[in-house]
Amino acid sequence: LIKRSFSTTTARNVINNVTVIGGGLMGSGIAQVSAQSGNTVTLVEVNSDLLKKAQSSIANNLSRVAKKLHKDDPNAAQKFVEETRSRIRGATDPTEAVQDADLVVEAIVENIKIKHDLFKALDKAAPVKTLFASNTSSLSIGEIASVVNRKDRFGGLHFFNPVPVMKLLEIVKIPEQSEETYQAFLSWGKSIGKSCVTCKDTPGFIVNRLLVPYIAEAIRMLERGEASPRDIDTAMKLGAGYPMGPIELADYVGHDTISFIMDGWHQKFPDNPLFKPSVSMKKLVEEKKLGVKSGEGYYKYNK
Ligand code: 3HC
């Protein structure tokens, strides 16, 4: 009876207060788009320096959005930035930050042990109503959720970089996830302006399962000396209509991230040739040439 009375109309208002754990590229983007659409947001980082860095990156990205929204009205643009920023509160204690959360989105380092420690603590600290989600790119949602009691209120909410621009949100189901939770994720995703797709908890979900092997093959093509980085990128932009070529995209996402994904999958599925780690990418990571964020990857960038 209770289940039936929980309509999607009710679900629309379930999530208004969001806690985002991790203020990196993804976490600050998630905090930004949540606040832009009216949610109250608590953004958690490990210390106040990192929190400041995240807040200033949000301010920069909000100005870009504001310029677009209010092209001819600088006052309205400024008001938009200020109002959105005022909805984002910073915090350094994750358990304190979830006290009144409707939804927690975790976007911290891709380490299962650290995620487990975090979610164990959050499960104790958060109210019963709080839904939990992970923005992991490559780890299993079920494995992350294994340490919490609220598996019915757990799922993957996977965003794409740059979060304020990319329209997609992948909603990842696990078998224990309730229909109410799924509907709440879906309504919230739509309310923050994303188009949602739903998928099972498999390596890479939909996008990364296709994108990462594609990038890896482009890099193998480069390693085999079959074409230059510039020509591979131009080919895929002009021949397949992609906004960025695969080598540019690898630099954009970061070689640390892509290597981490490939290594994890390779360990789990050693016989799958699509997941074979790339030699040249490993070398770049060792040399700390991580791509755009470090100033150099396969290409060089002005920092
Ligand atoms: N915040 C706000 N706005 C931003 C932004 C940001 N961080 N980055 C770009 N924009 C806006 C710009 O203001 C601009 O707006 P306008 O067209 O209205 O003026 C628009 O986006 C386009 O930006 P630019 O003109 O600077 O540059 P491009 O036209 O080259 O677009 C791009 C940049 C949107 C990044 C485009 O190249 C693109 O879509 N690239 C592919 C990105 C992609 O594939 N992402 C997915 C990576 S995989 C992933 O994230 C999964 C993870 O798990 C690994």
From TrEMBL:
Its EC number is 1.1.1.35. Belongs to the 3-hydroxyacyl-CoA dehydrogenase family. This is 3-hydroxyacyl-CoA dehydrogenase. It is found in: Mitochondrion matrix. The record marks H158 as: Important for catalytic activity. SUPFAM superfamilies: 6-phosphogluconate dehydrogenase C-terminal domain-like, NAD(P)-binding Rossmann-fold domains. It catalyses: a (3S)-3-hydroxyacyl-CoA + NAD(+) = a 3-oxoacyl-CoA + NADH + H(+). Transmembrane segments: none annotated. GO terms for biological process: fatty acid beta-oxidation. It comes from the Eukaryota. PANTHER family: HYDROXYACYL-COENZYME A DEHYDROGENASE, MITOCHONDRIAL, PTHR43561. One of its GO terms (cellular component) is mitochondrial matrix. InterPro entries: 3-OHacyl-CoA_DH (IPR022694), 3-OHacyl-CoA_DH_CS (IPR006180), 3-OHacyl-CoA_DH_NAD-bd (IPR006176), 3HC_DH_C (IPR006108), 6-PGluconate_DH-like_C_sf (IPR008927), 6PGD_dom2 (IPR013328), Mito_3-hydroxyacyl-CoA_DH (IPR052242), NAD(P)-bd_dom_sf (IPR036291). One of its GO terms (molecular function) is NAD+ binding. It is an enzyme of class 1 (oxidoreductase). Pfam families: 3HCDH (PF00725), 3HCDH_N (PF02737). Residues 204-301 form the 3-hydroxyacyl-CoA dehydrogenase C-terminal domain. Keywords: Fatty acid metabolism, Lipid metabolism, Mitochondrion, NAD, Oxidoreductase. Pathway: Lipid metabolism; fatty acid beta-oxidation.
